[in-house]
Amino acid sequence: MKDESAFKKVIKARTDLVMEQPFFASLALRLRVKEDTSCKTAWTDGKVFAYNPAYIKILSPEKMKGLCCHTVMHPACAHHKRRKGRNAATWNKACDYAINPILLDAGMTLPVGFLYDKAYAGKTADTVYELLKGDSENSEKGETVNKEDDGVNSDDSSSESSDQETATPEKTGEKDASSSGISDPGMSGEVRDAQSEEGMGGDTESEIDWDQALLQAAAHARHMGKLPMGIKRLIDSKINPKLCWQQLLARFIERNAHTDYTWSVPNRRFIHQGLYFPSLNNHALNEIAVAIDTSGSIQNKQLAQFGAELSAIMETFPLRLHLIYCDMRVTGYQQVEKWDLPIRFKPLGGGGTDFRPVFDFLNQERISPACLVYLTDLECRYFPFKQPDYPVLWIQTGGRNNAEPPFGHRIHLDVSLSVTDQP
């Protein structure tokens, strides 16, 4: 027989979240509530929120809301579909380390025993899993957990302790966690693998589109002015994933180097018929400009990497590249065609930095590029007063000085930056 008091406590926690934390509430309400006395705490597989009523009863209202938020973040980050045969206990720990910093940053109170280590904050569950796996036998770092015992057999006074967030290191490796039968090492809600349609028995629930649910929940919370910053970063990473600079460079050129039609020059093939049709403007496709800051701040290794990427792009697109070297003035210029590949830079100069001469040079030489790519450390404040008609991409080298150019897009040349995953 279902424990009605525990069920009502779960429902009340989700109801309270509607006004307090609308983002988490919107997601939590998508899960069907289900009692499960066989589990230790609670779990989800992306369709249900299952709980042990004995565990629910010892939680304070704030920890109960934290349990709901923690559990629903697992499917929100697709943890129920990403384990791929890895150790279940270690995967749960890795997922907890990935999402708990976001929950704590949002002001949530998690059940006693939650896993947290600032060294793992901002890392993906996959990355944390590999770190935990490598440290499982004899961890020198240990795990940062809450020392209090928030288990099913705890009394109320222990579970409601006010200093719940006082955490100390405790060594509990992967082997211990899995062999002891702890399915929820973090005591905050377990994630289980999503069940296939064949393995669901008589359950005909439709699959929840968690990507869409995540975006809708964020939009609702943003409208209410209650979207946590950590969640905003998560949403931004899904909508605008961080790509390595090579991918961003290729995407920028591909987007701007396109074939277009122009009415200013009629198509000669049809003039003798008295027909006035636009001609294909290959100029927009063939011409791009690349400027190299030669003030001495760019290392040869960075130039070589940049040249290799440009050469690869020119192999794909029939581009003519206008290569301009500049410090305080234009110190060199050359045209590069496909048969000149690979690109080998020959920078001249070494004085200060002024961005204006490159734009003046393009105007004076009547070069109208489809786009301009400027490789520089951005340690300069001399920009053109007027934004050019063509798109500009600034590729910043050296330290991240957070300099924002007055126009165009900026990316950082960082060979260590790769495509990021969600928590």
Name some characteristics of this structure.
alpha/beta, 16% strand, four-stranded mixed sheet, 14 strands, Rossmann fold, six-stranded mixed sheet, 423 residues
Task: Give the SSE map.
Layout: H1 4-20, H2 22-28, E1 32-35, E2 42-44, E3 48-51, H3 53-58, H4 61-76, H5 88-105, H6 125-134, E4 143-146, H7 156-159, E5 167-170, H8 174-179, E6 190-191, H9 210-223, H10 229-239, H11 245-256, E7 260-266, H12 268-271, E8 278-281, H13 283-286, E9 287-293, H14 300-316, E10 320-326, E11 330-336, H15 356-364, E12 372-376, E13 392-396, E14 409-412
Parallel strand pairs: 1-3, 2-6, 9-10, 9-12, 12-13, 13-14
Antiparallel strand pairs: 2-3, 4-5, 7-8, 10-11
Helix pairs in contact: 1-2, 1-4, 2-4, 2-9, 4-5, 5-6, 11-14
Describe, in plain words, how this protein is organized in 3D.
There is one protein chain. The chain is α/β, with parallel strands linked by helices. It has two domains: 4-239, no CATH class; 245-412, Rossmann fold (3-Layer(aba) Sandwich). It contains 15 helices and 14 strands. A six-stranded mixed sheet has the order 11-10-9-12-13-14. It has a four-stranded mixed sheet with strand order 1-3-2-6. The longest helix has 18 residues, at 88-105. The model is unreliable at 137-181, 198-204 and 415-420 (pLDDT under 50).
